[in-house]
């Protein structure tokens, strides 16, 4: 059943303790404080639910039962569907984005525990199966008989996922094995893994496909890797416990989400240097808020930060580093997806 919820969005404006990025703005004022359009989807892992939030009003339009312990989300290329990785189970669920009506439920293998998920521009879904040390490729996911292929990573805790633009390669971060793994999606080559820092978790491929970025939460570092050889090209210090890493759609910045001190570390992807830190919450509030998933708006002007401990998503103006508002989510809001 669909349960409609309306919440007042809590406004909280907080200056980041740093200067704006050079070339982005000429002052510390927010670049976009007016009306924002679009839709934010949130997987609420403690509430076992999926929320749809109207970004113009900041209000939750719908919250529906999703599955046990839902984590990561991915939207379809046409924006009509959102897929949920059901980390507490063995399947992914697909909902239409208009009213969050369930459209499909795709069973994976026994004990799959799906987590990282990508809905590729070509229409295929890719998802890690942490409980099976593998990834799944799903063709025609909305058909009655989707084509499902499982490939092993051979590593423990394959958690987050990136996929190449041509669907020839995928990469996982493997928490249990402390590795990054390259998987040949054509099946011609065996998986190849290397150790990268301590507990690598965040992962993202640059828009041009030339650099693989990884954050290692146990070593407080971000790494730039060659996506083919997995040779480390650069190693950068971040703030504490960087468990997510995302790249701006424009490709010029990468950002890590640092759970232990409630901050974002901003990296210039061309120079491969840390250029500033954005304080989303104070160090004393970090434990309470439990900052996890981060997501860019398509125009690169805002960053959405899931604070799973306080059931909020912080909306951050990237240019100024100001927290514009906090949006109320369901219990344990974590995985995020956005539509313009």
Main features:
single chain; Methylamine Dehydrogenase, Chain H; five-stranded antiparallel sheet; 1 helix; 29 strands; disordered N terminus
Q: Can you walk through the features of this model?
A:
- With 340 residues, the chain is mostly beta strands.
- The protein has a single domain (2-28, 43-339), classed as YVTN repeat-like/Quinoprotein amine dehydrogenase (Methylamine Dehydrogenase, Chain H).
- Helix content is 2%, strand content 49%.
- Strands 1-4-3-2-29 form a 5-stranded antiparallel sheet, with no helix packed on it. The protein has a 4-stranded antiparallel sheet with strand order 5-6-7-8, with no helix packed on it.
- Strand 17 and strand 18 form a beta hairpin.
- The chain is globular and about 45 Å long.
- 54% of the residues are buried.
Quick summary:
The protein is mostly beta strands and about 350 residues long. The protein has 1 helix and 29 strands.
Describe the biggest sheet? 5 strands, antiparallel
Order of helices and strands: EEEEEEEEEEEEEEEEEEEEEEEEHEEEEE
Share in β-strands:
over 45%
At CATH level 2, the architecture is 7 Propeller
Structural class: mainly beta
SSE layout and pairing:
Layout (H helix, E strand, L loop, with lengths): L1 E2 L35 E6 L4 E6 L4 E7 L4 E6 L5 E6 L4 E6 L5 E6 L6 E6 L5 E5 L4 E6 L7 E6 L5 E6 L5 E6 L4 E6 L7 E4 L4 E6 L6 E5 L4 E5 L6 E6 L4 E6 L5 E6 L4 E6 L4 E7 L3 H7 L1 E6 L5 E6 L4 E6 L5 E6 L4 E7 L1
């Amino acid at each position: 059943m669909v349960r409609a919820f309306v919440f007042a969005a809590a406004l909280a404006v907080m200056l980041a303790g740093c200067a704006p990025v050079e070339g982005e703005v000429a002052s510390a004022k927010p670049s976009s404080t007016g009306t924002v359009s679009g839709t934010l989807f949130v997987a609420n892992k403690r509430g076992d639910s999926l929320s749809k939030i109207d970004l113009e009003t900041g209000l939750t339009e719908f919250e529906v039962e999703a599955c046990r312990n839902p984590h990561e989300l991915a939207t379809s290329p046409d924006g009509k569907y959102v897929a949920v990785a059901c980390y507490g189970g063995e399947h992914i669920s697909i909902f239409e984005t208009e009213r969050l009506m369930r459209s499909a439920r795709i069973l994976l293998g026994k004990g799959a525990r799906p987590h990282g998920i990508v809905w590729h521009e070509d229409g295929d879904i890719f998802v890690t199966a942490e409980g099976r040390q593998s990834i799944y490729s799903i063709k025609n996911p909305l058909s009655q008989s989707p084509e499902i292929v499982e490939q092993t990573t051979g590593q423990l805790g394959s958690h987050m996922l990136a996929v190449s633009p041509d669907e020839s390669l995928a990469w996982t971060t493997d928490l249990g094995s402390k590795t990054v793994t390259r998987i040949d999606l054509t099946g011609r080559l065996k998986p190849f893994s290397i150790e990268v820092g301590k507990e690598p978790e965040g992962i993202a491929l640059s828009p041009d496909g030339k650099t693989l970025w990884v954050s290692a939460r146990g070593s407080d570092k971000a790494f730039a890797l060659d996506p083919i050889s997995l040779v480390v090209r650069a190693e950068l210090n971040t703030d504490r416990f960087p468990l997510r890493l995302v790249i701006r759609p424009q490709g010029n910045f990468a950002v890590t989400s640092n759970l232990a001190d409630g901050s974002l570390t901003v990296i210039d992807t061309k120079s491969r240097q840390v250029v500033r830190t954005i304080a989303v919450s104070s160090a004393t509030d970090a434990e309470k808020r439990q900052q996890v998933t981060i997501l860019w708006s398509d125009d690169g002007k805002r960053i959405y930060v899931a604070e799973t401990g306080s059931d909020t998503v912080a909306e951050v103006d990237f240019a100024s580093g100001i927290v514009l508002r906090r949006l109320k989510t369901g219990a344990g809001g974590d995985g995020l997806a956005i539509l313009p």
